[in-house]
Structures are given as structure tokens and as C-alpha cells.
Amino acid sequence: MFGGFSHSVIGASHEATGLVCQDHSAFEINEHYSIAVSADGHGSKKYFRSHVGSQFAVEAALETVRHFYKDPERFEQSFPANHKLIIKNIEKQIIVNWNARVQRHLEQNPVKLAEMNKFTKDEFKAIPVESYYGTTLIVAVSGNGFQFGMQIGDGSLVAIFEDGVPVMPMNYDESAPANMTASMCNSNAASMFNSFYTEHEKVIAMYASTDGLYTSFSNEDDFLEYHLIITSQLDHLETFEKSIQKNLMKRSHFGTEDDISLACICDRDYLAEKAPELKAKVADQKAHAAERKAKRLAALKNSD
Q: What are the structural domain ranges in the chain?
């Protein structure tokens, strides 16, 4: 049985300037697959509807995966042997669905004078309409016997497989020319995705997060350790959800000051089996962290 959560919290910098939260996240669980999705609307002024665009990205991803799973047995039979092609088709369809939402929203909500007045006439004419809604997207899916994910733009997908070690199975690669953001709004967006697939490891949990979470840590090791700590507490998911939301709010206000989204899916039965091992790993990491801190303090003392 799978479970999960998703939370998006506004950053202190956005609250201070009166901006809305530009992140969006969601998760979905059913008998054939589970999915976690996060999206981060771009902050530059030409992306002035990016908070809507991030919502559309999450909705488009959920809708697309649902569509591909319309015949679950057929999908599960064909996917492992053809996963590269099918993942590419999923990515293309997400872009199509996102653009359809953007066009529909623009027709129903024409650009207002207040939105145009932030630009000169020539500046505004030069902005492609899709850019109003520019956003990143991170998708993690666990199916029966396999897991896969995809990403466009920054953010992180973290997986914890049966060995209990948190990893990022996709190396973030900004697949865009210099000075261009990899984004759902780009004309060649479908070619800008990174993806991963595995069928050889059983998954405990997977996470999709926007870059506000990663940048709230001083290094990648601490970021990954955070996911291990979270996973070790997911055996009490209902009570844990309140504390994780508070923690994300704290990180967004006293760390990065950016919006933060974190979506999670986890195998609750396997998690219960692995809980003692995960808690032992967390205790071991804390001991190593204390040892490293003591060595740093000793080195500083000796240098005086």
C-alpha cells in the first residue's frame, strides 16, 4: 500500500514583496501506480503568470500519466521493454496538455493593463505568450515492478531504494543554450527533459522538490540526509505531515527565503519493514556529523 503527501509553502522573500507562491505540488495514489509532482514558476517579471503555469504543469503531468495508464495491464506489459520511447511520449504529451491549459486560460483571462504596464510596448510584444506561464516540472512515478521520473528545469528528484541510501537518480542537466532557462514554456521543451527508469530495485520512497528546498542546505550531503530523516519518520505519516509542513515553512523563511514544494510517495508496507534499519542509519549519520563537527572545532582551536 502506497501513501504520500505534498506541500507548497511561500518563501519569506515573496511574502515581503507581496508575491503569491509560485510553486505547486501534488501526489496521487491508486492500485496501479503512485505519482509525486512539483513545479516552480519562474521568478523573472516576464513570467508574470508563472504561479498559474506551475499549477497547470502539475495538472498536465497527473492527467498525462493517468492517460497512459488507461489500460494498466497493457501499459505494464509494454513499458519495461519500451520505456525510453514511452517516457519521451509522456514528456511530449505533458507539454501538449500544459500548452492547451495555457491557451485556454489566456482566452478566458486576457492580459490586463496592470500586467502589460510592467513593460514597454516593444518589450511586451517580444514576450512569447507561453512565457507568461513559464515553470519547471519534476515528476516521480512508482509502478508495479518499476519506477521512473522526468524533470525539466531545476529542482530535485530523490529516491530511497531498498539499501536505504538516498540518491538523485537523474543528474540535473540544464539542456538549454546559455542564458536560457529550461522551461515548460520553451518551443523545444520536449527535448529539454531529463529522465530515469529502473526495474531492478524496490523503492521505499521517492520525492519531487523545487529548488527552494535544495538551496536551503549548505551542501548536497545534508540535502540527501534530510530525505533519509524524513523517510525514517514516514511510518507515522498522518502525524508526521504536520511537522514536515512546519519544517518546510521554517526552511523557506530562515534558509533560502524562496518558495518550497515537496511531494512524496512511499511504500508503506515496505517502509514498516525497513523502519528499524532507516532509524539506525539516521542515528549513525548523526554520530558521524557530531564527529565531523568536533574535528572542525578542534582544527579551529589549534589554528588560533
A: 2-278
- All cell numbers assigned to 74: 497493457
Quickly tell me which residue has 503555469 as its cell. Answer: 53
Query: How far apart, in whole angstroms, are the C-alpha atoms of residue 120 and residue 126?
Result: 10
Grid cell listed for 144: 508495479
Q: What is the CATH number of domain 2-278?
A: 3.60.40.10
Q: What is the pLDDT of residue 178?
A: 43
This prediction has a pTM of 0.92
Q: How confident is the model at residue 181 (pLDDT cuts 50, 70, 90)?
A: confident
Question: pLDDT of 119-167, one tens digit each?
Answer: 999 999 999 999 999 999 999 999 999 999 999 999 999 999 999 999 9
3-state secondary structure the chain: CEEEEEEEECCHHHHHHCCCCCEEEEEEECCCEEEEEEEEECCCCCCCCHHHHHHHHHHHHHHHHHHHCCCHHHHHHHCHHHHHHHHHHHHHHHHHHHHHHHHHHHHHCCCCHHHHCCCCHHHHHCCCHHHHHCECEEEEEEECCEEEEEEECCCEEEEEECCCCEECCCCCCCCCCCCCCCCCCCCCHHHCCEEEEECCCCEEEEEEECHHHHCCCCCHHHHHHHHHHHHHCHHHHHHHHHHHHHHHHHHHHHCCCCCEEEEEEEEHHHHHHHHHHHHHHHHHHHHHHHHHHHHHHHHHHHHC
Q: How many CB atoms lie within 10 A of CB 246?
A: 12
Q: What is d(CA 136, CA 214) in angstroms, rounded to the nearest whole number?
A: 14
